[in-house]
Structures are given as C-alpha cells and as structure tokens.
Predict the structure.
Amino acid sequence: MDAFLTDAEGLAGALQQLLNAPATGETKPTLPTTVPTQGTGPDVALATLRPFLIDGARNLGAAGFFAHMDPPTPWITWAVHQWTASQNQNLLHPDTAPTARDLETRLISWLAPIFGMDGGHLTPGSTVANLTALWAAREAGATEVIASASSHLSVRKSAHILGLPYREVAWDSPGDVSQSAAVITAGATSTGEIEALDAAPAAAWRHIDAAWAGPLRLSGRYSALLDGLENGDSVSISAHKWLFQPKESALVLFSDSAAAHESVSLDGAYLSVPNVGVLGSHGATAAPLIATLLAYGSEGIAGWIDHSMELADDLHELVVQSPVLEARTTPNAGVVNWRRTDISVDATMAGLPDDIFVSSTMIHGERWLRSVAANPMADPGLIVAAIEGV
C-alpha cells in the first residue's frame, strides 16, 4: 500500500520534470496496447508519460500562440491541483468535503454579484453550464430554446438533451418568445461578437452565454461591454477561458439561485443534502480559482484581460497596415478575424513555422484566420511577420 503514502522524493522528482525545459530530439516511448499486468513503478511511468504530457504538449503561453480560447495558467493553479488530487474531496457529500464545499460557496458569493446574479455553482465547462441553465428554464415553463446563428453548439445540444425544440432567430425579429428560453451570446466563438444583451425581453427565460466574454465584467475598461448582463435569468462563464484556470472549470449563475437550484435538485437515499445540477460527484474545482483570486485579486485578473485586449488591438493595427493582409472587422472582445489577400487561409496555415499558431473559422461561408487573445504573452508582431512570410 506504499502508493498511498507520501513519497517526498517521487513528488520532488515529478516537480523537477515539470520545471525542466522540454526535452528535444528524444524518441517518444511506445505505450502498451493493453492494460499492463505488471507495473513499471512510478518513476518509469512518469518518464514514459512526460513526452506526451509535457514535451509534446502545446505551449499556450508561447509568444507565437495567438489561436484559441485556451489560456496559459498561473503556476499557483498547478500547485493547488496537486493539493486537491492528494485529498480527493467529493463535494457531493458534506462529510467527505466539509471545507472544500465551503470554498465553493465562498467563491460563488464573491463572483455572482459581479455578474448581477445572486448565486449558482461550478460545472466542468460552459457546455454543462448552458445545459443546467436551460434545464432550469424548462422547469420554469419554457417550452423551446431560441438563439441566433452565433450561438455555441452546446445550446443546440442542450435543447436536444432536454427534449426542447430549437429555433434559430434574428434578435431584431424573433417572433413570439413568450414560452421561449432565449440564449444570448456574449462572445461568439468565431468572432467574439457580444450580442445585444437586452434582446428578447419578453422571453420566458433569458440566459446569457458569456463563456468567453463574461470575465470582461471584472475590467474597469471593458465592463460596459456587458451592460445588461445583470438582467438575465442565468449566466454561464468559462473560468478555463478568460479567468485563466485549468480545465475543467466554469460557472452557472442565476438571478434567483434558490428557485433555480430547487428546480434542478434531486434527493437520494445515500445523500444527506440534495444533489444540485447535472453532476453527481465532483471535486474541489473551486480551489485553483479561489487561490488565483487570493493571490492576484480581481484587479490582477482584469490586468491580464486588459493586456490581452490590447494585444488584439495591436494585431489588428498591424494587419490593416500590411499590404498583403486584411481584417474582417475591428476586434470583438479580443477576437481578430483576418487573412492574406493573395493566398488561401489553408495555404497560409500550412506554411506557418512550427512555433506560430493561429486558428481558422468559417464566417458567412468565407474562411478567415481567427486569433483569440487568450494568451497575455503573445507577440502580435512575431505572428504577423510569420504570416506575411508564408
């Protein structure tokens, strides 16, 4: 049973492998094709996995990474993840996680008012957050889900799971919405667009999918972009996007969390408290985020977001100054859509050096490069020079 005892030397060795620069030129080990009968021991197992989990991983904080809605994470979250794994708390049961439950309650009490909500809970991502919000909407009487063409695929997925019809609408003429759960997007995946947050005022339930742009509410400079957010019935936010948290971390918040939670809660014979929401067992996922807020404060996170927004503006300015590049629009919530004017997007991406990363998307039938300002350490000049040099 030694595996369950603290091995200071083994933990120190694992940390050292994390701190060392990624190895280069080494042959990646071959993993077995079936479950091993005899184990190799922790040291060999870690050495085997390092090329997959560290050396072969994408460096989201590299200067040349200006691609997806996936940020680098502050080192304090790595440390807290080790702590939570070592204790393996299950927040489903108060008796197995008395203090970890308190941490999640405290975190929600900190964050919910920032978004004009009175409570909520954590989920593994905004897909589950959207599903939970629409579940509450259904229980409150909504009989269909409506959203624009910019909505995230999780909205359609949630409607399907919940057995609700899904209708795509234009917000300036949505038709009868009196029985609808209206999902308004604050930070579209392809473009970063923030839709009118006062859309569908007569809807039975108004959910703001702020998975990407929601954390702008922490910023003194950009908070006004989300004015009206507080008038929703529910809000979803991906903490593993612009709150710079490890996967899997998100929040679903409600204007009346007591009623919403009651509508999505079930009891079980083995439970001492009701099980709220989609999840059963879940771990102390609040810990890395509360540690980040304790260490850097809301102003610290806002500073990272503000700088990221500036990087998007810098990238856009370089694009419009270039004779071979074009921008689709000015940046929307830190997302830049751009491309070469003389070669295709696919050819552009195929010609990029190994240390430069941008993504691509389809917008109204046209393919564009997509650069998302999730990495505060990105270098727009480096990226533009690489694209121009393809």
About this structure: Residues 88-284 form a domain with the Aspartate Aminotransferase; domain 2 fold (CATH 3.40.640.10). The mean pLDDT is 94. The first strand starts at residue 119 and ends at 123. The first helix runs from residue 8 to 19.
